[in-house]
Amino acid sequence: MSLTLPTYPQPDARGRYGRFGGRYVPETLIPALDELERAYRAAKKDPAFLNELGRLLHDYVGRPSPLYLAQRLTDYAGGAKIYLKREDFNHTGAHKINNCLAQALLAQRMGKRRVIAETGAGQHGVASATAAALLGLECIVYMGAEDIRRQAMNVFRMKLLGAEVREVTSGTSTLKDATNEAIRDWVTNVRDTFYILGSVVGPHPYPAMVRDFQSVIGEEVKVQLQAAEGRAVPDAIVACVGGGSNAIGIFAPYAYLPEGERPRLIGTEAAGEGVESGRHAASMAGGRVGVLHGAMMYLLNDAEGQIEAAHSISAGLDYPGIGPEHCHYSETGVAEYVPVTDAQALEGLQLLTRLEGIIPALESAHAIYYAVQLARDLGPDQVIVVNLSGRGDKDVAEVMRLLDLETKREEVRA
Amino acid sequence: MTATTTRGAARIHAAFDRAKAEGRAAFMPFITAGYPGAAEFPALADTLLARADLLEVGIPYSDPLGDGPTIQRASEQALAGGTSTRRTLDLVKALRQRHDTPIVIMTYVNPIYAVGPREFMRLAAEAGVDGLILPDLPPDQDIEIADLAAEYGLAVTFLIAPTSTPERVKLVAEACTGFLYAVSVTGVTGAREGSALGEVPAMLALARQYAHVPIAVGFGVKDRQTAHQVAQVADGVVVGSAFINAVRDGQDVAALAAEIAAGCRKSV
C-alpha cells in the first residue's frame, strides 16, 4: 500500500512538453496555478498524503486492477497475446477515480471545501462526485446539455452522490463547453474552490499532475506482466485517447525508457464517421496546433482559430484537443496515434463482449478494435497490453439505440 | 524592458494624456466585431467612437473563457453572421477611414496562432490597429507575441487581477506597452450589481509602482455611477457588456455612451 508518485523529465519548468502545454489562462488564475503546483510538489513528498492515497486506492478503488490474458480474443486475432489492463474493475467503473481521489485529497489538504469538475461521458463527474462524497466536500459538475441527454444514468448517479450538476447550453453543449464553464467558475471562485480537472489537458501543472496520478496503471502493468510473462515490457501498448488520461497513465511509465527498450505506444483517436468526413474527434489526424483551455496542443480549429465541434460515438472522447504530452510524444516519435471510427469501435465492443463476456466502454472499444488488428500482424511470441479504461454500463442504452439503427438500415437494404 | 515606443503605443498614450488634461479618465468602450450583425456594426462603432477616447474591438471567438454570458452570446451571434478574425480586421480598417481615435483589438491567442503570429500582426498593422489586449496570455507565457507586436508598431496590454501577487503585478505592469488593464473583480466579464471598485484601489497602488503606462480598469462597469467610482482611481474606464446588453435590449446606445462618458470626469 505504500505509494510513490513518479518523477518524469517532462515538462520543463514552464510547463512545456517541447512546444506544447504552458499556461494560456486569464491572469486571475496564475496565482492559483502556482499555489496548486507548490501544494502538489509538497504532497508528492509527504508520507501522510501518500499513505492515505495508497490506502484509498487499495481499499476503496480496488487496486491493483487485474492484468487479464484475453485468450479467446487472442485466438480470434490469431497473432500476439492480448492482455487487458482491467481499469473497468475500479470503483465507479473507470480509471477516472484514480485521479479524482488524489485531487480531492489535495483539495482537502489545501483547505478548499468546494470542488468543481467538468464531464463529458459522466465518468469523471461520477468519480469527482464520489470522491467529494467520501471526503465531505461540496461538488459542482458542469456538463453539456447534449451529454446530459446521452448519459442520463450518470447524471442521476452524480445527483444521488450529492453533487450539483449544472447544464451547459453554450457553444456545442458538449465537453469543451462544460470545460469553459468550469474554468469560468474557477476564475470567479478561485480563492475557495479546487478545480478537479479530468484529463491530461488544461494549464500546467494539470497535465503533469493527472499523468502522475494515472501512472499507477502502467506501474502495475510492469509488475503484473513480469509475473505473467517474465518481462516487464510488452511489445505494444494500446489505449484510447480523447484528452488522453488513461493512455498517459499506461504510457508514461514506459515512455521515458531509452529507445529500443520502449514498447510501441499506440493511442487510438476517435475518428467518428471518418477523418475525411469532418465529423470526428481525431485532433492529431485531423487538427492543427492551437491553444484551448490553457494549453498549446493539437486541436480541431479552423483557419481563423475558431474551435470546431468534435464528434464521436463516445461522449468521453468527444473533445477537440489532446493532451500536450501526447502531442510531444507524437512529434518526437515516442508514441503513434491512429484513427479508429465509430463503426470500428462498435465492432470492437461487440467482439470483446461476445468473446470475453466483458462489455467495454465505447472509449475503450476504440483501443480493443485496433489491438485486434495489430495482434494479427504480430507473432504469438509477442505481447500487447490494451488499457481497458472503463466498463460499458454507461453506454448500453446508446449502443442499443445504435445497433437498432443498424439493424433497421440492413432491413431497408434487404 | 525598455522597448522603443511604438506608433500604436504613442497614439494610445496621447489619448490618455488628452483625457487627463481635460480632467477625465479615458472612456474606453468595448464592442464585439460584427455585433449585432456585420451590416449594423459600423454604425454602432461610429456611435461609440463619437464619445470614446479609445475603442476596444473584440474578435468574436468560439471559446471566450474569460468572458461572461453577455460577450459570449455576442461572439456567437457575430460568428454566425460570418465575422471572424480577418473580417474583424477589415471592419477596423473601414472604421479607420472615418476616425482617428485609437483602436485596440481584444483577442484570445488562438486566432493569432491560427492566422500565424507574424501574418496576424501584419494584417492588424495594415488595418490601422494600435494595440492588442490579450486576456489569456500572461506576459511570461509567449514572448514572441509581444516582440512581433512591437515589430509591427502595435502596443500590447496584459491584465492584472485582484488575485495577482506583488511579483505578478510587477511582471505584468512592466510588460505592458499600451496600457495596463486591471480587472476589478475575480471573475469573468459582465455588468454586476453593486460597487465596481472592490479591491481596485489597493491593486492600483501596487501597480503604479511598476507601470510606465496608463492604467485602465474594467469588468463590471455598467453606468455613470460605476464609471465615476472607477474614474477616481484609474486613468481609463473600460465598459463592454453594458453596451452589448443595451444593443440587445434596443436601448439608446448613444445616450448610454454619453452618460458613461460623463461619469468618467474626475470631478462631479
Q: What structural keywords apply?
A:
heterodimer, A: 414 residues, 6-stranded mixed beta sheet, 4-stranded parallel beta sheet, 14 strands, B: 268 residues, alpha/beta, 12 helices, 9 strands, pyridoxal phosphate (chain A), aromatic amino acid biosynthesis (chain A), lyase (chain A), tryptophan synthase activity (chain A)
User: Which series of helices and strands of chain B comes N to C?
Assistant: HEHEHHEHHEHEEHEHEHEHH
Computed structural class of chain B: alpha/beta
Low-confidence stretches of chain A: none
Query: How helix-rich are the residues of chain A, as a percent range?
Result: 40-55%
Q: What level of helicity do the residues of chain B show?
A: 40-55%
Keywords (chain B): Amino-acid biosynthesis, Aromatic amino acid biosynthesis, Lyase, Tryptophan biosynthesis
Organism (chain B): Deinococcus metallilatus
Pathway (chain B): Amino-acid biosynthesis; L-tryptophan biosynthesis; L-tryptophan from chorismate: step 5/5
GO molecular function (chain B): tryptophan synthase activity
Describe this structure in words.
The complex is a heterodimer of chains A (414) and B (268). Chain A is an alpha/beta fold. Chain A contains 16 helices and 14 strands. Chain A has helices spanning 30-44, 47-61, 71-77, 96-109, 123-135, 145-150, 152-160, 175-189, 206-214, 216-229, 245-255, 283-286, 324-332, 342-356, 362-377, 396-413; strands at residues 16-17, 20-21, 67-69, 81-86, 114-119, 138-144, 164-168, 193-196, 236-241, 264-272, 288-292, 295-299, 336-341, 383-388. Chain A has a 6-stranded mixed beta sheet, with helices on both faces. A 4-stranded parallel beta sheet of chain A has the order 7-6-5-8, with helices on both faces. In chain A, β5, α5 (123-135) and β6 (138-144) form a beta-alpha-beta unit. In chain A, α9 (206-214) crosses α11 (245-255), α10 (216-229) crosses α11 (245-255) and α14 packs across α15. The longest helix of chain A has 18 residues, at 396-413. The mean pLDDT of chain A is 96. Chain B is globular, with a radius of gyration of 17 Å. Chain B has a 9-stranded parallel beta sheet. Chain B has helices at 7-21, 41-49, 69-80, 85-98, 109-115, 117-127, 143-151, 166-175, 200-208, 224-231, 241-248, 253-263; strands at residues 26-32, 55-58, 103-106, 131-133, 155-157, 159-160, 180-183, 215-218, 236-239. Chain B is built from 12 helices and 9 strands. Chain B is α/β, with parallel strands linked by helices and 268 residues long. The chains are: A alpha/beta (414), B alpha/beta (268). The interface between A and B is large, with 41 and 43 residues. Chain A: It catalyses: (1S,2R)-1-C-(indol-3-yl)glycerol 3-phosphate + L-serine = D-glyceraldehyde 3-phosphate + L-tryptophan + H2O. Chain A: The modification N6-(pyridoxal phosphate)lysine is found at residue 96.
